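Aim 2, interim progress. The first record below pairs a target sequence with its structure tokens.
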Amino acid sequence: MSLMQQVQLASLFQKNLEQCEVKPGETVALLTNLNTPRDYVAAASHALKELGAFAFELGFSSLPDPSRVAADGITGAEGIMSALKQCQLVVTFHAPNFASWSRVLRDAGVRIQTIIDGPVELEKLLSPPGLKPAVLHAAELWAGAREITLLNEAGTELTWTRGELRVKSQYGFADEPGRMDMWGAGHITNCPDEGSANGTVVIQPGDMWILPFARVVESEIRLEVRDGFIRKVEGSADAREFRHWLDRNKVSEDDMDPYAISHLGFGLHPNAHRDYIFHVNAQLNRLTAAARVYAGNFLFSTGPNTEHGGTRSTKGHIDIPMSDCTVLLDGKAVLEEGRFTDERLVVAPTF
């Protein structure tokens, strides 16, 4: 990276950290791993210095597996956790979702900001004006609903109730005590009440598979859901791999947790687009945020629910951003074939 690019990156990091409300005198920890770009560490360190904060780096001695959730390495390390609890902000360069240490820190009032996308994506997806209020409005609408229905023209008709688990909202920056967010985010998610999801989900060719790997779905995947779990997976090549991934994450023959319906929600980011996967050739490190947050996508997932307050911690997690879906909140459409019906959910693009 040239000197000019390093300066630009530092300026970009400063903008995001300003969004995170970093104040002079705050203590900030940088959680790195063996794959963290040193340019990112330098940019964050310089930006934090410019903002008057005190920063230190804590390096994980392992490589995070992008196909797995709950990156860990410090749970149980009381000395490290004690130090992190004294910070106002933790910047992590690997995903902390579903990790118990992130919940402990948030409960202590520590803000957590995740930075894992490529520099081009960080620039494009820097939270634009209007995204935060739109995301919070979406979260309020979702939280106010009791029954939710997902539809698409391919035959999807999935209904569930909600209220047991919290709605998670992310708009790109951790600006409040106990908040965890991600640079590039712009979406809401929530898990169904236990055992309440029933119906059919049809994942269509052209939808995306973004965890445990990045690819465009090429053949229909038809799922039969009953009492909160996927009971049947039908289709050809993509369906076989869908089933294989969940099966190999079972801890016993009768373990159904990988087949549970996990977080469901939609994206609102105006600078992300459904065709981006074709531009970057399915590079996972360039799609971590972009594929999940493009405005109007419905994010369907399987497996764990601990991030939303549940107890299921299976590694059998799949994320599928679906396009052209309709979502009904207590019978009223909030999303119609991928387009929002509420103007307060529509954010003007800046790229």
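The second target in this work package is listed in the same format:
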Amino acid sequence: MSQAARFGSVAVVIEVNDLTKRYGRKTAVDALSFTVRPGHVTGFLGPNGAGKTTTLRMILGLDAPTRGTATVGGVPFRTHRRGLRHVGALLDANHVHGGRSARAHLSALARSNGIPPRRVDEVLREVGLAEVARQRVGGFSLGMKQRLGIATALLGDPPVLLFDEPINGMDPEGVRWVRHLFRRLAAEGRTVFLSSHLMTEMENTADQLVVIGRGRLVAAESLTGFAARSSRRSVLVRTPRAAELTALLTAAGARVEAQERVDSEVRTLTVMGLLAEQIGTLAFDHRIVLHELATRTASLEDAYLELTADRIEYLAGQSR
């Protein structure tokens, strides 16, 4: 089914404009503006205390902003009478009545949102909880509660999905399942907004990023574009004339580190400060043979730590 047929002719986006939230003298979110579009898994990153959960709560209408707006499909989420048909969300897997069964929990939400009862069994099967559907949630592990929370988000088959740390407590099989699920949901044309502290999973799952620090926007761009902004990008060079090339590169303003020695001679270099094409041209002009020339971009974790270094509110190991 096409996106237009499933979700209507207008793309359902999350729009945050000048969003600000203050608690007394504390500013949790500060003039934040960004857009989350359908067809992508958009990661939401930021250090502890950056304002991520507060932002998600304002998008869902759970907290009122001090200033600014947060809309889903052009209107505030709270204006939707049957919210689960428009936005599915998992903010805290433990916010479930422990005395209810998984089926009872989902059935109550289905009735209140006008969702057919058959949908309860569908989502229980999808998240792998069909066999424990009649067990009380209070006996579930954290990973099982996360699956139930994802089932709740999927219950109304909504065009927009928000998840806050959804793989905490998941085993490796669960992490892989969640990763593929989010990609599939985005491929169906949904708007998927995912907050997580796990950089490796974000790198494997998201293709767009919104990064904040101390409540303010740091970046809103593709994952590859964000990683490319890191100064840690380098170029790997292999050549039998490493010493000669090192002298030329250094004279051109590059920083060069030796990586490998063969028969007491350096053969592999890591070069920072010049692009691969510049290195290749320099080697060609001086008739230096290159066996390998490859750009190495920074990992998401490297770029994130570098670009948010001055936005960390709670920094361990620092004396006062």
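The chain has two domains: 3-228, 234-296. This observation will shape the mutagenesis plan for the next reporting period.
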